[in-house]
Recover the amino acids of this structure.
């Protein structure tokens, strides 16, 4: 009986908790597999994805969290748009294609630039490995 009451109380407590909104940005070099990863999260096929020009916005519900992911284009000429999203993001998902050894230095420089940004400093950063060689 006591355990039933305790369970009811904890369920009520959770039910009363407000829905939390979280905004994340997904960055990384072009062709790293960002959009394919997002598609995977949504249960869609990662194949035949076109390069992202600008951004795409994905809304997900995870428990009491409403998560918005901005999947940002990683092409060299559009990477400067990333900084426009830093202030509103709770954290960063940095996707790395670990099979692309030739672009590791470029990846490192892009990552340093993100991590050095004052608007990212102190925020959670997830480095997500995507191995295009293994998965394609
Ligand atoms: N079959 C398969 N193809 C993949 C996988 N991951 C990525 N690809 C393909 O690899 C290419 C690049 O992946 P994207 O997800 O578009 O890469 P991106 O990081 O979003 O690139 P930008 O949008 O240009 O910044 C696309 O043609 C994808 O379809 C995978 O796991 N399996
Ligand atoms: Mg993309």
């Amino acid at each position: 009986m006591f355990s039933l009451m305790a369970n009811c109380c904890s369920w009520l407590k959770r039910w009363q908790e407000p829905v939390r909104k979280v905004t994340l940005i997904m960055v990384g070099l072009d062709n790293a597999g960002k959009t394919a990863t997002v598609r995977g999260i949504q249960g869609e096929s990662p194949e035949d994805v076109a390069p992202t020009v600008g951004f795409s916005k994905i809304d997900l519900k995870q428990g009491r969290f409403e998560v918005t992911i901005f999947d940002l284009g990683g092409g060299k000429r559009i990477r400067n748009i990333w900084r426009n999203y830093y202030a509103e993001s709770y954290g960063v998902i940095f996707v790395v294609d670990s099979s692309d050894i030739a672009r590791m230095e470029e990846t490192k420089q892009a990552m340093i630039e993100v991590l050095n940004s004052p608007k990212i400093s102190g925020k959670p950063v997830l480095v997500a490995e995507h191995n295009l060689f293994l998965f394609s």
In short: The chain has a mean pLDDT of 91.
